[in-house]
Write a structure and sequence with these properties.
38% helix, 184 residues, NAD(P)H_nitroreductase, NAD, alpha+beta
Length: 184
């Protein structure tokens, strides 16, 4: 798939099934993350790849977070099932490093670029996924389970696998609604 075609036609795919990316394909996805823009070469990232029993472990973390957060019984019952919506979930973490030239927001943005690169690399190789956040990404119990420091962030959960169906095409947006030109 050509890079421009990939970027202009990107869609998220929430309905995923086995197989998950593996071998050289998964290595390409991981290498794409490591090429994200990274001011001062801080590599302010940490990625946790959850598959198989790892998905259950992630589900247990979400369930414990739901209980600790006094969520509804329905949310508590649903929590351990959330990671099972795909055969692989990559937890993307921005590991903040104090640097006078690279503020916190830039390090989080760098991690977000890495997530986008991983999804694009998956799509380019015949897989797809969806980048999810939600309340669990900001939950203190989840952050504690991943041993995060106060300024670290879970940027998202990248669900990856084989699409169950072809993604529906998106209606093109007008760039004029979002871009302005200062030519003078």
């Amino acid at each position: 798939m050509h890079a421009l075609e990939l970027l202009l036609n990107r869609t998220s795919q929430p309905r995923l099934q086995e197989p998950a990316p593996a071998g050289e394909i998964l290595e390409n996805i991981m290498q794409a993350a490591l090429r994200a823009p990274d001011h001062a070469a801080l590599t302010p990232w940490r990625f946790v790849v959850c598959q198989g029993l790892g998905l259950n472990r992630l589900g247990e973390i979400l369930e414990q977070a739901a209980i600790a957060s006094d969520m509804s019984e329905k949310d508590i019952e649903r929590a351990p099932q959330l990671p099972l919506r795909a055969p692989m979930v990559i937890v993307a973490i921005a590991k903040y490093q104090d640097n006078p030239k690279v503020p916190w927001v830039e390090q989080v943005a760098s991690t977000a670029c890495a997530v986008h690169s991983m999804q694009m690399a998956a799509l380019a190789q015949g897989f797809n996924g969806i980048w999810r956040t939600g309340s669990y990404a900001q939950n203190d119990e989840v952050k504690k389970a991943f041993a995060l420091q106060e300024q670290d962030e879970i940027v998202g959960f990248l669900y990856l696998g084989t699409p169950q169906a072809e993604a529906l095409p998106r209606k093109p947006k007008s760039s004029a609604d979002y871009f302005e030109f200062w030519n003078e």
